[in-house]
Design a protein that fits this description.
The complex is a heterodimer of chains A (329) and B (316).
Chain A (H helix, E strand, L loop, with lengths): L7 E3 L4 E4 L11 H24 L3 E3 L4 E4 L21 H9 L9 E4 L4 E4 L27 H29 L7 E3 L18 H13 L38 H16 L7 H26 L14 H12 L1
Chain B lengths: L3 E3 L3 H9 L11 E5 L5 H13 L4 E7 L12 H10 L3 E6 L7 E8 L2 E14 L19 E5 L2 H4 L1 H14 L6 E3 L5 E9 L2 E12 L7 E19 L3 H7 L14 E4 L3 E4 L18 H29 L1
Parallel strand pairs in B: 2-3, 2-4, 7-9
Antiparallel strand pairs in B: 4-5, 5-6, 6-11, 9-10, 10-11, 12-13
Classes of the chains: A mainly alpha (329), B alpha/beta (316).
GO cellular component, one term (chain B): nucleolus
Keywords (chain B): Nucleus
Protein name (chain B): Ribosome production factor 2 homolog
Chain lengths: 329, 316
């Protein structure tokens, strides 16, 4: 029982381990077990606290601060070690020549405007390219524009610098020490002669193309090895859906549904062309009756009026019926 | 066709630098997610682990049906999530008839799976079921005491592995200095048998004792559960060697605002914020101020009289 002072205490992690305790195979009950665990735990925590509070402490606003020793148990890292960056081309050259870096001031005195201006950037001091007049030399070409030439030179310098920077970054990437905020993207030059940028393909398109490529093998892509994480092709090759030969019970007639669906589609498209004969006849008759009624009422009211009653010359009432029949065809 | 891709904003650059590999690493972030079927017990377990590790954990609420960490193809999703959220420990919960209340705790190295431990959860008691004095409740993010009891943790291979993983999961931020007043929680892991571990989370009560060291009292507050070890996948030896490496180098700390001048010696810069002395409220109205005011008034009054008399003379 007294061999409990043999704890392994790791102050760096505030951890303690008691390797000597063994539980009886039949613990009495859950509560008893919990109690015993708490008791043992208290002993261990006390042991850690003993050594912890004996460390030299500094007084702080919130309480005593204690510097923990480095932990004894080693835990695996989450990322690899950062590798040092290989020296750039300029750094190598500077080392060889013995060129040392000098601390430069932020502002420099500009002779032209006699003020203090920044060393680089917009409106910088002693800028050789911001002069409005360039004096011509005797051996200058009269057709050449010196301002344009200066601009071109500047562009070339910038391009050169960018290419150097890219080369340095590629060297760093080879050594595994690329700065964390930079990624080198693969330049995809199009196979065609034009300089068009490659079109960005969507996920669905890629999936379709991959499916097409997969099924282009002799066995239709069935026995290809799949990469980890690759999903099966979306369209499994079955393009038509046939109804089962024997209709199960309780579904209703699927064939009837199918044909009905097709019929409805056709009707809805051409509904303006289909003529409902009965409806047409009815509407015509109703119209005619309304007209006759209105005329009768007019005639009845107009007898006592100033206006002459318009005598409607009804030619052949029977013929109208006949013409109706003809229309209805 | 741009070859160099950089962060477009300073904030983006800082975020990327936070995720870069460092010489000395601070605590690992945890990713908590679950598979297609989770029991209510498992859901509670996952949410409680998330609460215990609030600052350094990310909990996904969607179902993930294509994660099978023990199979060779089923871990791509996990690695992708680990890359996106910058988490290097994950806790994956799933429930099936064969493996009820299953919890897989795994670690990643360089965003590839490093090792895995699979445990089943039994006899789970949630934080709400414990009643205790609210003043004792441990604060979020405090560094815990971790204790392991039982010879099983030394003898059994799987329990050894589980011990390491649990230490990594629960240890909190890796700090050098701690405030002794802020110690308020402890985790107790007990090896009940060769494949069962009892875990409980307690709050600490420091009582006065005769010496500097206070007497510790543990009060059970947090979740308590039994872990039944099912499977485990130890790390690859070569990767393990790489991951366990340490250097003696300390990260270079730049001393700011100090210059060493040849003539003046060591010179430092001090920046003081603008003290608006005119706007500062005076603590109490000193009696002298009142007297000054009175005197000033008198002066003004006498001055006026003089002016008045002068004017009269001029008028005349």
């Amino acid at each position: 029982m007294e061999a409990q002072s043999d704890f392994q205490v790791d102050l760096g992690h505030l951890m303690a381990f008691n390797p000597h305790h063994s539980f009886p195979s039949q613990p009495s009950s859950r509560d008893e077990l919990v109690k015993e665990c708490l008791q043992k735990g208290t002993e261990l925590v006390q042991a850690i606290a003993d050594s912890l509070f004996h460390l030299p402490s500094t007084e702080d606003v919130d309480g005593p601060l204690v510097k923990l020793p480095p932990p004894a148990t080693r835990l695996p890292r989450e990322k690899h070690f950062p590798t040092p960056k290989p020296p750039t081309k300029w750094e190598l050259f500077a080392q060889k020549k013995g060129i040392k870096k000098r601390k430069k001031d932020k502002v420099v005195f500009d002779e032209q405007s006699e003020t203090w201006k920044r060393r680089f950037g917009y409106d910088r001091a002693n800028d050789e390219e911001a002069i409005p007049i360039i004096e011509a030399k005797p051996n200058d070409d009269p057709n050449e524009d010196p301002f344009a030439k200066r601009k071109e030179n500047k562009k070339k310098r910038i391009e050169k610098q960018e290419s150097h920077r890219l080369k340095n970054l590629k060297q760093a990437a080879k050594a595994g020490a690329l700065p964390s905020h930079i990624q080198l993207a693969a330049t995809a030059l199009p196979i065609t002669g034009t300089q068009a940028a490659p079109k960005k393909v969507t996920k669905d398109e890629l999936g379709n193309v991959a499916g097409l490529a997969a099924t282009a093998t002799a066995s239709g892509g069935k026995f290809d090895k799949k990469l980890p994480g690759e999903k099966a092709a979306a369209h499994k090759g079955k393009y038509r859906k046939f109804l089962p030969v024997v209709e199960g019970s309780g579904i209703g007639s699927r064939e009837k549904e199918q044909t009905e669906k097709i019929m409805n589609k056709i009707f809805s498209k051409n509904s303006h062309e289909i003529l409902n004969i009965d409806k047409a006849v009815k509407t015509y008759n109703v119209k005619k009756e309304k007209k006759q009624k209105s005329e009768k009422s007019k005639a009845a009211s107009a007898t006592g009026g100033k206006l002459k009653p318009q005598k409607k010359i009804q030619k052949n009432p029977s013929k109208k019926g006949g013409s109706k029949k003809g229309k209805a065809k | 066709m741009v070859e160099i891709k950089t962060a477009k904003t300073h904030k983006g650059k800082r975020e990327l630098e936070k995720r870069a590999p460092k010489l000395v690493e601070s605590g690992k972030k945890t990713l908590i997610l679950h598979g297609t079927r989770t029991s209510s017990v498992l859901k509670a377990v996952l949410s409680e682990i998330y609460h215990l590790k609030k600052e350094s954990a990310i909990k996904y609420s969607r179902k993930n049906d294509n994660i099978k960490p023990f199979e060779s193809g089923g871990e791509t999703s996990l690695e992708f999530f680990s890359l996106k959220t910058d988490c290097s420990i994950f806790v994956y919960g799933s429930h099936s008839k064969k493996r009820p209340n299953n919890l897989i705790i795994g670690r990643t190295y360089d965003h590839h799976i490093y090792d895995l431990v699979e445990v089943g959860v039994e006899n789970f008691k949630s934080m709400e079921s414990f009643s205790y004095d609210k003043k004792l409740a441990p604060k979020e993010g405090s560094k815990p005491f971790i204790t392991f009891i039982g010879e099983g943790f030394e003898n059994v291979e799987e329990l050894k592995h589980l011990k390491e993983v649990l230490l990594d999961l629960f240890r909190g931020a890796a700090v050098e200095n701690i405030n002794l007043a802020g110690l308020d929680r402890a985790y107790i892991f007990t090896a009940l048998s060769s494949n069962r571990v009892f875990l409980t989370h307690c709050a600490l009560r420091l009582k006065k004792s005769g010496t500097i060291v206070p007497r510790m009292e543990l009060v059970e507050v947090g979740p308590s559960m039994d872990f039944v070890v099912r499977r485990h996948c130890p790390p690859n030896e070569s990767i393990k060697k790489g991951a366990m490496k340490t250097t003696r180098e300390k990260p270079k700390k730049k001393e700011k605002n100090v210059k060493k001048d040849a003539i003046e010696g060591k010179v430092g810069n001090i920046y003081i914020p603008d003290q608006k002395i005119g706007d500062m409220p005076l603590p109490n109205k000193a009696k002298g101020v009142k007297r000054e005011r009175r005197e000033a008034k008198l002066k003004n009054a006498s001055g006026e009289h003089e002016h008045a008399s002068k004017r009269k003379k001029e008028d005349l």
